[in-house]
Amino acid sequence: MKTPVKIRVNGTLRESEVEPRLLLVQFLREVCGLTGTHIGCETGVCGACTILVDGQAVKSCTMLAVQADGSEVTTVEGLSRNGKLHPVQEGFWECHGLQCGYCTPGMIMTAVHFLERNASPSRDEIRHALYGNLCRCTGYSHIIDAVEHAAKKGKT
Amino acid sequence: MIPAMFDYVRPATLEEALGHLAKYGEDAKVLAGGHSLIPAMKLRLSQPKVVVDIGRIGDLRFIEERDGKIAIGAMTTHYDIESSDLLKRSCPLLPEVADKIGDIQVRNKGTIGGSCVHADPAGDWPAAMLALDAEFEITGPRGSRPVAAKDFFVDMLTSAVEPGEILKLIRLPLTAKTVGYAKFTQKASGFAIAGVAAVVDKARKSVTIGVTGVAAKAYRAAGVESALSGSELSTANIGTASQKAADGVDPLSDIHASAEFRAHLACVQTRRALELAVSRLP
Amino acid sequence: MYLTEELAAKGKVARGYVGRAMKRVEDPRLIKGIASYVDDLKIPGMLYAQFVRSPHAHAEIKSILTDGAKVLPGLVGIFTGADLNDKLGTIPCASPISGGRSPQHTVLAGKRVYFVGHPVAVVVAETRAIARDAVDLVDVDYEPLPAVMDPEKALQEDSALTHPELGTNVAFIWKLPAGDVDAAFKEADKVFKLRTVQPRVTPMAIEPRGCVASWHAGESSLTLWTSTQVPHLVRTLLPDLIRIPENKLRIVTPEVGGGFGSKLNLYAEEVVISHLAMRLERPVKWIEGRRENAATTIHGRDQVAESEIAIRNDGTVLAIRSKIIADVGSYCQLLTPAIPTLTGLMLCGCYKLKAVLAEVTGVHTNKMSTDAYRGAGRPEATYMIERIMDLVAGELGMDQVQVRLKNMPQPTEFPFNTATGLTYDSGNYQAALAKAQDLAEWPKLLQERETARKEGRLFGIGLSTYVEICALGPSKIMAAGGWEWGCVRIEISGKVTVITGATPHGQGQETSFAQIAADWLGIPMEDIVVLRGDTATAHFGRDTYGSRATALGGTAIVMSIEKIIEKAKKLAAALLNSKPEEIEFENGKFFVKGKLEETIEWGRLASEAYIAKNLPPGLEPGLEASSFFEPSNCTFPFGTHIVAVDVERDTGHVNILKYVAVDDCGKQVNPLLVEGQVQGGITQSLGTALMERTVYDESGQLLTGEFMDYAIPRAPDIPEYILGSTETPSPSNPLGVKGVGEAGTIGATPAIANAVIDALSPLGIRHLDLPFTPERVWRAMKEKEARS
């Protein structure tokens, strides 16, 4: 039994009939064609699928598309405005905060959300905030630099 | 990665939700924040025929002070609790525990009710619920019934909520700042290998201790509590009493910690939680 | 554009890119979420495949019933071993050891399954969800057999057999007798023994494997998009297996979400999906789930070594005899046997041993195969020799630094021939050690340890001075060519296209190779595009593994540019009415010697070269060259890592208080990328040291099949790394680079291990094996307390 959903994704209203078992991440990737949000595990640990739902960072692999009906969703594709990178994206580029790039969109979305809650974090607070995003390439150091960089940029 | 097929209903009221549960019986599962149910469905360990999403029932998400108690709606998220000024003032154990659950994303979506009803033996909330003598209000076809925390966590992955029922809210006492939560984390999952919540009542010279992660269900460390009852909360007394934290329990054993190590950690974390609580004495 | 803010602030520098910290060219698409990984591909008419996998470690397949699944609407087909195995070749091992015995590795299980996750059948459907549903409806009847799980017990006479038809669990025996070992032992003042255990670990790239195959019926050709490190090796190996000519096969690696060696293979799934696309004449996609990844993508390490060490009382380490048992799992994958042989070859570490005897026994068990995991054999060797150094120091009451200095070759002794027959290209081990000690504030650190110990705290300092083997390598030591290929094309417009065969998967070659080409051509980096990862454009390549890409792939680009410059001089001579030998090339400009007032740049040369109206007689049009670089030797990066830890007495938890690493990877093309590689490598190794281990139970069930049970480091686990470097160029290539992809992984584990054991040494603990999980450390402490 398919269920209708209306989800505003990066400002565009997406309407579709979906199987209730369709995960939000699959809705974004397969229905909306927004493949920036990645899947790295099955148990909601790795965080590669992190997006914002109504402004809150959540793991889109642990949420059904039907649960997001009526919500505002922001994915990594929706971060830059008028061709200008979001300060967190800039930070990742500037500080070499990524290597293979697979965890990066989720990492960036968590950081965006975190900096909205805490605009001047310490490095330890950044570490703690990124607990739910696994990276196997960078060793996290440059990612922490990137978020710190974005926090400083955000203030200027 | 892909759950088995199911039908989905999203009731607007609690009554409507109970109606669905009555209709579908054992075939139905209640979806709260989804952080326990959805992974289990993705791995097809859980294959409900009907999912009843209670996420839009407006009056299940609140934190209030009512009649000298704290009342928290079942659909209140971990982050709501972590960031609540009321709780930081009046029941500070809860924000402290919330902060140690999973990660930011999980705390934004996961709920206290969903977590308690799931009754994961390594979940963080049961320790706090036991230490605070929480009272759970469960609603079902025959109306509401209160259940004390000690009766709520029945067994591994089994709470007192029966099929057809929904947890509505949790009532908790107002406490002083003299509380502490000490968690030894399972490195991979972030769940507790030993999580100990301590509440110290200085006036009555009594402590309550809830322990999670150690046994098939969370428990009150009665031996520690009685050893400290009426006695001075000195470092030495705490140290001696904490040794009883796993008395009479049958600890779990897995690749992350043997039964022996878990029992040991229960004692260590009990001492740490008590020391933390005592350090907050004015 | 790619200058970091720091550099930009100093004024944009258009030349001299090599050696500068540059932002990456590849990042914008990745941080915007618009890059394409395999699972992002969508082709009209594409089908989805899922594998039915064995829940048993060892069992006989009695029957496979597919009728239940076949009724699902949208199901296209179900194929078992009986349907596929005789139509397809077997999975190759490229590094067999003579006398070794391994079974035929069919793409799907035949009569038996040999490990949990062994593919038994494949289902294909119109959607991912239908394919997943169908898997549950395939009914396989298994008769479980005894599982062989312990490699040491597997060698006993009465052991059950992983592959009964082989009559033994021994996959191979490899011996390296180097130098006169017996004589060296006779010289010894002391001989001591050490048993070391390297646990099995799971690579866990965040992007699991996956592939899409598309058959082009009109051309009878196949395109395979696959998440691999080695598209060119796949193109070499796959044609025989799926019975099509190599020139009808194109392999594309779009973005690859991490490899660490786990995607350095030809996997059964790639063969099956290719075949299905041909057979069904529709594109087919398969994406691995995390549980599949943990169970059926190669594992790493898993060695047990019993060693005897001969020493002199002055601290000289004379010789090592080591018997290494390597648990290779059920099958030998591409490089499985080669990995533990690298352990033997690198057993000398950076020390002047006289003789080494290494005997490696590869053992089949009912587990997933082991193969190359970041470091691949060298972390195992380094762990052994660096533990040995600390034990020698302990045995003789020497300082851990002094014992190392005592055994290192002097910088003047390079190229240095080791007892194991390798020639270390260049090195200054003492300098790296001294610099690391400086950065670590060594005297202060020793003071801190003394103070901590007086207070009863368990504080330890660990050290590792490592050397590794990189830039693999000369073709004579490699299974299928150790060269690398590159191509440079000056386009008609003067823009430059660089094509590399060293396919990156996160290392940043689009940036570092552009830096190299820009410097050699004397043009802005922005004018260069680096293509990679498609065998239709990168015609040749041996790909990225073994820290080889920059040393070999970078050199192939430089060689191609040199060829182009040579040709361009002839053209410039014609245009400037001069002779080629009179033409100079500097900073992107050609001119007649001494006549700087009239220069020709690449733009004009290119248009002349392709429009071809003024070419001198005999000169071909165009400005393009390609090259194969065949190195004369491997490279040998080295360094020193210093770690300080404290151990919680009541929980066994290890805190890393300080981490210093000085790595020497030769010339650095982009120090920012070097730093990233080092930090990432150390962190992976920190996982190996403190938390990671792949656990099977006695019946062969995998207990670490998810991130819920297999811990990898998270952001709060890492300390603030203090990094430094020394720069000893390699003589093995014109860039002087050595490679840095694995350095961190190789140097870190032993340093952390030595620190933890040093912290525990006041309790009388002399050795403890990886990983130092709280329980393991707590138990070790408890046992000592019980005894004392």
From the structure above, extract its key features.
heterotrimer, A: 156 residues, alpha+beta, Ubiquitin-like (UB roll), DNA polymerase, domain 1, 5 helices, 5 strands, 33% helix, 16% strand, B: 282 residues, Uridine Diphospho-n-acetylenolpyruvylglucosamine Reductase, domain 2, Uridine Diphospho-n-acetylenolpyruvylglucosamine Reductase, domain 3, Enolase-like, domain 1, 3 domains, five-stranded antiparallel β-sheet, four-stranded antiparallel β-sheet, 14 strands, 25% strand, globular
Strand content of chain A: 15-25%
The count of DSSP E runs of length 2 or more, i.e. the number of strands of chain A, is 5
Quaternary organisation of the protein chains: heterotrimer
Give the helix level of chain A as a range of percent: 25-40%
Distance between the termini of chain C: 65 Å
General shape of chain C:
globular
* H/I helix tally of chain A: 5
Counting helices, strands and paired strands, the structural category of chain A is: alpha+beta
The figure for the number of domains of chain A is 2
Number of helices of chain C: 20
Shape of chain A: globular
Report on the architecture of this protein.
The complex is a heterotrimer of chains A (156), B (282) and C (788). Chain A has 2 domains: 3-76, Beta-grasp domain (Ubiquitin-like (UB roll)), CATH 3.10.20; 87-155, [2Fe-2S]-binding domain (DNA polymerase, domain 1), CATH 1.10.150. Chain A has 5 helices and 5 strands, in the order ββαβββαααα. In chain A, α2 packs across α5 (141-155). A 5-stranded mixed sheet of chain A has the order 2-1-5-3-4, with helices on both faces. Chain A is of the alpha+beta class and 156 residues long. Chain B has helices spanning 14-24, 37-42, 78-82, 85-90, 93-98, 104-109, 112-118, 125-131, 149-152, 222-228, 235-242, 259-279, and strands spanning 7-9, 28-31, 50-53, 63-66, 69-73, 135-140, 143-148, 153-155, 158-159, 166-173, 179-185, 192-201, 206-212, 219-220. In chain B, α11 (235-242) runs antiparallel to α12. Chain B has 3 domains: 7-53, Uridine Diphospho-n-acetylenolpyruvylglucosamine Reductase, domain 2; 58-173, 2-Layer Sandwich (Uridine Diphospho-n-acetylenolpyruvylglucosamine Reductase, domain 3), CATH 3.30.465; 179-279, CO dehydrogenase flavoprotein, C-terminal domain (Enolase-like, domain 1, 2-Layer Sandwich), CATH 3.30.390. Chain B is 33% helix and 25% strand. In chain B, the strands form 4 sheets. A 5-stranded antiparallel sheet of chain B has the order 4-5-10-6-7. Chain B has a 4-stranded antiparallel sheet with strand order 11-12-13-14. Chain B has 12 helices and 14 strands. Chain B is an alpha+beta fold and 282 residues long. Chain C is α+β, with helices and mostly antiparallel strands. Chain C folds into 3 domains: 40-145 and 208-256 and 263-296, Alpha-Beta Complex (Aldehyde Oxidoreductase, domain 3), CATH 3.90.1170.50; 300-472 and 633-787, Aldehyde oxidase/xanthine dehydrogenase, molybdopterin binding domain (Aldehyde Oxidoreductase, domain 4); 483-629, 2-Layer Sandwich (Aldehyde Oxidoreductase, domain 4). In chain C, 29% of the residues lie in helices and 23% in strands. Chain C contains 20 helices and 28 strands. In chain C, strands 3-5-1-12-9-10-11 form a 7-stranded mixed sheet, with helices on both faces. Chain C has a 5-stranded mixed sheet with strand order 7-15-14-13-8. In chain C, strands 18-26-27-28 form a 4-stranded mixed sheet, sandwiched between helices. In chain C, α15 links the parallel β20 and β21 (528-531). Classes of the chains: A alpha+beta (156), B alpha+beta (282), C alpha+beta (788). Chains in contact: A-B, A-C, B-C. The interface between A and C is large, with 56 and 60 residues.
